Amino acid sequence: MTAERKPSDAEAEAPETSDAQAPDAALAEAQAKADENWNLYMRAAAELENVRKRALRDVENAHKFALEGFGRELLAVVDSLEMGLATADNADAEALREGSAATCKLLKTTLERFGISEVDPEGEPFDPEFHEAMSMMPSPNTEPGSVAQVIQKGYALNGRLLRPARVIVAAEAPPDEGNG
Hints:
The chain is α+β, with helices and mostly antiparallel strands. It has helices spanning about 10-15, 20-65, 70-85, 95-115; strands at about 115-120, 130-140, 145-150, 155, 160-165, 165-170. A hairpin with a 2-residue loop joins strand 4 (about 155) and strand 5. The radius of gyration is 40 Å and the shape is elongated.
């Protein structure tokens, strides 16, 4: 006994298409799907280009205005220096010294606020990554190979060296020549 296949209700109601129309309909459907995918691709490509341009513009603005806050803070230091210069003719030496000290403190505070710290290694072991040796000298009070004197302080930005400290390194003291 063979089972005969009965057409489903959907198949029974569907109009019969000729074999010649089927490839044209499939081609039209494929073309419509291809057009839809092409449009989606073009929109995605345009969006990607917009994101790229926006990111480039953001980076340019970040570079252009990165120092805006730092510059604004330094204006207080400039104002202090200008006030000191304006009053210099009528001020005594002690008042000028106090004003200069206050301005220096203001500048150091501003630098610290932006992550710039002093490298002042006096008495510490010499480190060529943070110190620049200008010379060596015998120093009975300082251990050999340590910084005996700081000629110019160095500075670091968030741990990254901006300028090394210029130092004189302690050498071993020569032996006494009188005990021979």
